[in-house]
């Protein structure tokens, strides 16, 4: 996970220009959190660096044995065909000729336009990394949303990942909390994801991602808690709990675990296992 704040260079037009990169399995999710001073049209520019072909809602890019699929998911899908009038609210695309970086020729890049005029938008694009240019078995993604959240449900190779983006935690609230309920999860996190085996209940998830949150609960069970907002990746496998934590100079947190783990590894370092009443307690974590 990487967060880039690009507000400064474009602050004459933008009051919020954040880009998140979340890499899960073979997909990089690019989340743009944008707010402008005035309403206008948003567009996303793509320089493919290879041969590009639009297929339905996807842009396929191939360069030799390397290939990716660019799939816009929010705020709208890419219009399914070139008859954009049949999809008046979806992103429409335009090919643009521009000089190459060395100014010795021209190249084609692609502009995805949002027809609506707005001053705030969430852009979510999946960049699917294909193992071969001919790979057909790609992740299946469902757009989902509820009260104060948008997200995805991703199905791939027997696993399901639910990704949620908290619409209240994007800076629009200054003095009120940003708690949401999403599919039974309660959190103040800006974004979170849970991964579980197909056929299992989400509560059985052993993999969690929390982006700038202080708690994740389900019913009366706490899956994550902290007195400060943190960035966390949690994964349990082979009886070991692996944690990546960031966000504060010194961090204390609790994590749900059905059994006492054999070992706890935090930011690559083995730490003492402190286990009480179904919770692994981690304290004094310092970013070095």
From TrEMBL:
It comes from the Bacteria. This is Heparinase. It comes from Bacteroides cellulosilyticus. The lineage of its organism: Bacteria, Pseudomonadati, Bacteroidota, Bacteroidia, Bacteroidales.
